[in-house]
C-alpha cells in the first residue's frame, strides 16, 4: 500500500511540473531555428565581438539545428522518467554587454527554465569570452526572487548572497557571461534525495554546454564551473555527463568551494573532471561539512582547513570558502605556501613537515600550474584576507 501511494505522488508531481511548463510551445518542432536575441537595441546590434553578441544571422548561415538538440535532450530525459524538457533548475543568464547604452549586470538578460530556452542563450555569447557557471549547495538558492516566484513557490528559500556577490564582482571586472544555476526545488529535499537530484541538474547543465559548443557560441576551454558544497560535488556529475555527450571533452576549470563530504567518500570531484581543478577546504573540523582529502590539482587549506579564524557558529567555516573566493577577485591576494613533503591531517587540520614559498595565490587568480597541498593563514577580522 505504501509503495502504491508513493507511486501516485510521483506521477502527480510529474503532472504538476509539466503544467508549470505548459506555456512553453514546442516551436522547435514546428518551425526552423529559433535563435533570438532577448533585446532589440542599437547597442546590441552594434556590439563588437569583444563585448559579446553572436546574433541570429550567424547561426542561420551555419544551418545549425539547435532545436534538434532540444528534442534529443527531451528524449533522454523521458527515458530517465523526467518531465520533457526538464532541466531541474532555473538558469539566470547575466552579461555585461551593453543594453540601452549601459552595462546592466544586476538583471538577467535571459531566464531559462526549459530546454527550449537554450537557443536564446546561444545568441548572447561570444566564444572568445569566459562563461562562468555558479552552482549552490544543499538547501541553497541563488536566483533573483522575481524569477523564482514565476517558476514555483519561493517559500523557505534562503538566497546564497556570497555566490550572488561573486557573480556581480566577476561581471564588474571582466567581459564575460555568468549563468546562475538555481536548483532549489531539488536541493531543498532530504540530503540523499538532493544528492540524487544533483545528477539530473548536472546533466541538464552539461546538455546546455554541449548545445552552446556545437552552435559555435562557446569554446569548452572557456567554461569555468564554480560550485559550493553539494554544488561543488555536482561538478563531477556535470563533467561525466559532458564527456559522454561531447566526445570526451572537458571544460577549462572547476573550482570546488569546500566540497561536501557526506556520502562522497567513494565518488567525488577529481582531477579528471576539468583541465584544472582547484579546491578550497574550510570546514574539516569536528563537524566535517567539507572534504578533508586532497581531490584537486591544487588543494588550498586556509587555517589548515579546520575552523576558520573568527568563526564560532555552525556553518560559518563552511561558508568562508565562498567569501575567500569573492575577496580573491579584487580585494585579497591570498598568497600560499606549498607543502613540499609530508602533508598529513592532525587535530582536524592539514599540516606539513616542510612548507615552502610557492608564489601561488588561492582563489580566482590561482595559476593552473599549481599542484599539491597549499596553506595560508587567515585574518580573523573582516574582510578575512590571508598571508
Keywords:
12 helices; 11-stranded mixed sheet; alpha/beta; Rossmann fold; 387 residues; single chain; 13 strands
Commentary on this structure:
The chain has 387 residues and is α/β, with parallel strands linked by helices. The chain has a single domain (32-376), classed as Rossmann fold (3-Layer(aba) Sandwich), CATH 3.40.50.1820. It has twelve helices and 13 strands. It has helices at 2-20, 27-30, 42-45, 56-61, 66-79, 118-122, 145-151, 161-173, 184-187, 191-214, 230-245, 316-330; strands at 90-95, 98-99, 102-103, 110-112, 130-135, 176-182, 223-228, 251-257, 274-280, 298-302, 335-346, 349-361, 372-376. The strands form two sheets. Strands 4-1-6-5-7-8-9-10-13-11-12 form an eleven-stranded mixed beta sheet, sandwiched between helices. Strand 7 (223-228), helix 11 and strand 8 form a beta-alpha-beta unit. It is globular and about 55 Å long. The protein starts with a helix and ends in an 11-residue tail after the last strand.
Amino acid at each position: 500500500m505504501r509503495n502504491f501511494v508513493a507511486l501516485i505522488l510521483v506521477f502527480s508531481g510529474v503532472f504538476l511540473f509539466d503544467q508549470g511548463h505548459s506555456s512553453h510551445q514546442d516551436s522547435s518542432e514546428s518551425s526552423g531555428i529559433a535563435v533570438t536575441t532577448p533585446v532589440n537595441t542599437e547597442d546590441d546590434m552594434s556590439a563588437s565581438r569583444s563585448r559579446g553578441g553572436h546574433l541570429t544571422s550567424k547561426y542561420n548561415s551555419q544551418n545549425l539545428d539547435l532545436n534538434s538538440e532540444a528534442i534529443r535532450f527531451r528524449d533522454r530525459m523521458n527515458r530517465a522518467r523526467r518531465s520533457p524538457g526538464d532541466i531541474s533548475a532555473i538558469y539566470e543568464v547575466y552579461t555585461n554587454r551593453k543594453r540601452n547604452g549601459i552595462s546592466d549586470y544586476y538583471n538577467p538578460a535571459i531566464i531559462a527554465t526549459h530546454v527550449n530556452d537554450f537557443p536564446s542563450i546561444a545568441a548572447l555569447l561570444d566564444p572568445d569570452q569566459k562563461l562562468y557557471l555558479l552552482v549552490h549547495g544543499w538547501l541553497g538558492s541563488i536566483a533573483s526572487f522575481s524569477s523564482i516566484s514565476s517558476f514555483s513557490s519561493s517559500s523557505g528559500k534562503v538566497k546564497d548572497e556570497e555566490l550572488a556577490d561573486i557573480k556581480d564582482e566577476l561581471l564588474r571586472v571582466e567581459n564575460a557571461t555568468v549563468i546562475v544555476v538555481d536548483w532549489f526545488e531539488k536541493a531543498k529535499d532530504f540530503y540523499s534525495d538532493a544528492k540524487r537530484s544533483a545528477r539530473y541538474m548536472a546533466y541538464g547543465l552539461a546538455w546546455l554546454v554541449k548545445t552552446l559548443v556545437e552552435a559555435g557560441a562557446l569554446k569548452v576551454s572557456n567554461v569555468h564551473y564554480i560550485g559550493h558544497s553539494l554544488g561543488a560535488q555536482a561538478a563531477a556529475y556535470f563533467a561525466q555527463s559532458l564527456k559522454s555527450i561531447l566526445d570526451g571533452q572537458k571544460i577549462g576549470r572547476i573550482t570546488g568551494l569546500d566540497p561536501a563530504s557526506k556520502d562522497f567518500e567513494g565518488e567525488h570531484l577529481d582531477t579528471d573532471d576539468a583541465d584544472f581543478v582547484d579546491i578550497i577546504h574550510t570546514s574539516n573540523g569536528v563537524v566535517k561539512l567539507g572534504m578533508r582529502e586532497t581531490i584537486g590539482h591544487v588543494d588550498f587549506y586556509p587555517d589548515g582547513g579546520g575552523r576558520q579564524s573568527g568563526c564560532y557558529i555552525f556553518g560559518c567555516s563552511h561558508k568562508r570558502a565562498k567569501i575567500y573566493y569573492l575577496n580573491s577577485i579584487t580585494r585579497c591576494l591570498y598568497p600560499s605556501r606549498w607543502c613540499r613533503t609530508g602533508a598529513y591531517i592532525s587535530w582536524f587540520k592539514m599540516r606539513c613537515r616542510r612548507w615552502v614559498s610557492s608564489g601561488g595565490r588561492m582563489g580566482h587568480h590561482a595559476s593552473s600550474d599549481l599542484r599539491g597541498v597549499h596553506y595560508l593563514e587567515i585574518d580573523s577580522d573582516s574582510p578575512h584576507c590571508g598571508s
